[in-house]
Amino acid sequence: MDGVDEHPIVVELRQSFREARDVTPEGGQPLYVLLPAVDLAGPWHPSPARILLRFPGWPDQRPDFFIDHAVVNAVGEPPRSNSDQLVLGETWRQFSYGFAWPPASAPTATKAVLAWLARFREAF
Amino acid sequence: MASAGPARVELRIGVGDFRLLRSVLEPSGGRERAAFLFVRPSMTADCVRLLVTGWWEVPDAALIGHDDRGLRWSADFNVQVLGEAISRRGGVVLIHSHGALGAYFSVTDSKVAASLMPPFSRLLASAVGSVVLGEKGAAARFWVGGEEFVQRFGIAMIGETIHTWPTVGLAEHSLERRRLARQNLAIGGTSDAALRAANVAIVGLCGGGSHVTQQLTHAGVGNLILIDDQPVEDVNRGRMVGSRHDDDGRPKVDVLERLVLAIDPSVVVVKVPARVPAPSSLEAIKHADVVVACVDSFVAREQINSFCRRHLIPLVDIGLTIESKNGQLASAKGQVVVVTPDSSCLRCSPLLSDAVLDAERAGRPPGYDSALDAQADPQVVSMNGVLASEAVNCVLHLLTGYAGTTRTGWWAYDGQVGSLVPCARPPRRLRCDACAEQGHGDPG
After folding, report:
1. Chain-centroid distance, C-alpha B316
2. Of B370 and B208, which is predicted with more confidence?
3. Dihedral over Cα of B245, B246, B248, B252: its sign
4. pLDDT of res. B103
5. Do B307 and A89 touch (CB under 8 A)?
6. Interface of chain A against chain B, CB under 8 Å?
7. Would you tell me the crossing angle of helices B298-310 and B354-363 to the nearest 10 degrees?
8. Element (H, E) at B420
9. Considering only CA atoms, which of B171, B111, B166 is closest in space to residue B134?
10. Mutate to test the interface with B, among A21, A34, A84, A97 (most CBs of B within 10 A)
11. Which residues have C-beta within 8 Å of that of residue B290, sequence separation ≥ 6?
């Protein structure tokens, strides 16, 4: 069953982020992809951390990005302008962060994730 | 040798599914039948809830024998079952019935369970087990990580009411509380014990939740889980039952604990000063037999609905939207909704449509709710009280079945004209995201 009928976004993300896997529930739901171990920049920890992506409206709409609830900065704070979100039965952290989408060149899931991850170059 | 593990295992299943399962396992005449239940775990510190998400009957084609020693089937079928359980990221429970012969493990039953379940339990992400149904009870053995563990066992059938099979310690007229004598006359003598044993979580402790908490305490619910992260403010005291003039700044959970214990000091109160979906709030909700949601946002309502759906916990939701124009009441519309595994959910309905949720999220981006200028909505204590009282009736019916008849589970409230009307429940929606996660339990 490995690799059979895998969503191309999952295949693409696995090339950039180890062990990316499809966690989409049944019943015609948008694609959900779990990145179980993504390195975070700077003071953010724990690193690597889990990231959950949701792809409604792809590629016109950037994916929704959820970070592991445990991730905090050097002074123990989560990213600014954040809220707890229940996704797939677990509490994740969502935060406000703007970037241009779609990008000037062809949109890819990897570009979207890297754009989101730029948030963690800021200390707060 | 069985070891100590979680104190209790509960198999949780929709009542419609259980009826169908029994009709297969207990046909009139014919051979013994067995089935594998596919389950997902919902764990708390003292209880393993196994949520039934589907089942396969052992088909005739897989049988290799049936005699007075029992039913035997091919190893190939076991492999298929194992593969399906792995793909569902859960466990399995083998179940069959002895009918009138009673709930016990025969020599063959024990051999089959002991040969099959330990290896299954080493490969699967959940406790696995074997259950034998009898006319008046059920016997069960469970394994996790290759080891059998000792536990108390029950089956919770969740429908319009919650039934536990077998019922334990709910003998009629035992432990009756004199203050509930009139209530017992109305809703039945076994209600006292059922309510005393029940765990009810109330999310949101202000306009609706304070009424609900007060009434459930008077009604005899023995265990209350109070969830709210806010302190009392002066603007709350116009509608928060139990609040006093000197409570400003005091956590709402503390105020309501005080209210509860003043009515009945024997109630076990668990205070959770958190907001759904903070991890502590979700962990608390998992202990509940019923959740009552009295929250003031559609997104919060959606998350509670989703979580209860996932863990097969019945939900009673109340909400009220008041609009005023030029200082006059323009409309006061609300609802009381009961969601059970057999019913459609809030996300199936226009109440929590994508448009409603998107509009609220646009108006309340991440971080909004902690902002000082967050919008305040109109509220009236007496209108909240109408909805809260009917919500309490719903909880009582879930726990005791007192109404004895089918209730729609959906009421529309109009506070302007003064009506609370039962109405038809919307059907299940195709591609409902909450229903897609029904019974999935803990994240895999």
Report:
1. 10
2. B208
3. negative
4. 84
5. yes
6. 23, 25-29, 69, 80-86, 88-91, 94-96
7. 130
8. strand B419-422
9. B166
10. A84
11. B162, B198, B199, B200, B201, B313, B314, B315, B316, B395, B398, B399
Find residue B420's DSSP bridge partners: B413
| B273 cis-preceded (ω within 30 degrees of 0) | no
- Please answer yes or no on whether B278 and A25 come within 8 Å at the CB atom: no
What φ, ψ does residue B23 adopt, rounded to 5°? -65, -30
Paired residues of B50 in beta bridges: B11, B41
Rounded distance, CA B317 to CA B300, Å?
Answer: 11
The dihedral of CA B305, B292, B224, B177: what is its sign? negative
User: H or E stretch including B155?
Assistant: strand B147-158
Contact B325, B317 (CB under 8 A): no
Answer whether B277 sits within 8 Å of A80, measured CB to CB: no
The first and second tokens of residue B68, run together, are: 């007075």
CB–CB contact B436 A95 (8 Å): no
DSSP B123: H
b/e sequence B225-238, b meaning 16+ C-beta within 10 Å: bbbbbebbeeebbe
d(CA A95, CA B206): 27
Question: Cis link prior to B277 (omega < 30° from 0)?
Answer: yes
What pairs with residue B268 in β-bridges? B223
What are the Cα distances from residue B396, in Å, to A2, B173, B197, B423, B425?
Answer: 49, 18, 12, 20, 20
DSSP type of residue B103 = S
> Which helix (H) or strand (E) element contains residue B348?
none
* pLDDT mean over B261-272: 96
Query: What is the C-alpha to C-alpha distance for residues A16 and A7, in angstroms, rounded to an integer?
Result: 15
Considering chain B, what percentage of its residues have pLDDT values greater than 70?
A: 93
**Alpha-carbon separation of residue B91 from B81, B112, B128 (angstroms):** 10, 17, 5
> Which tokens hold the place of B97?
């019935």
ipTM associated with this complex: 0.87
The DSSP code for B25 is H
Q: Please write the tens of the pLDDT for every residue from A75-110.
A: 999 999 999 999 999 999 999 999 999 988 889 999
> Alpha-carbon distance A117 to A30, whole Å?
22
Looking at residue B406, its pLDDT comes to 78
Q: Which residues of A touch B365 (CB under 8 A)?
A: 81, 96
Residues of B with CB under 8 A from a CB of A: 275-279, 282, 303, 306-307, 310, 365-369, 430-433, 435-437, 440-444
Q: Tokens for B42, please give them.
A: 């919902």
E-assigned strands of B17-81?
34-43, 47-57, 63-67, 70-73
Q: Are B370 and A84 in contact, with CB atoms under 8 Å apart?
A: no
Residue B242 is inside which H or E element, if any? none
The predicted model scores a pTM of: 0.90
A54: chain B residues, CB-CB within 8 Å: none
CB-CB under 8 Å, A28 with B436:
yes
Q: Which residue has the higher pLDDT, B29 or B25?
A: B25
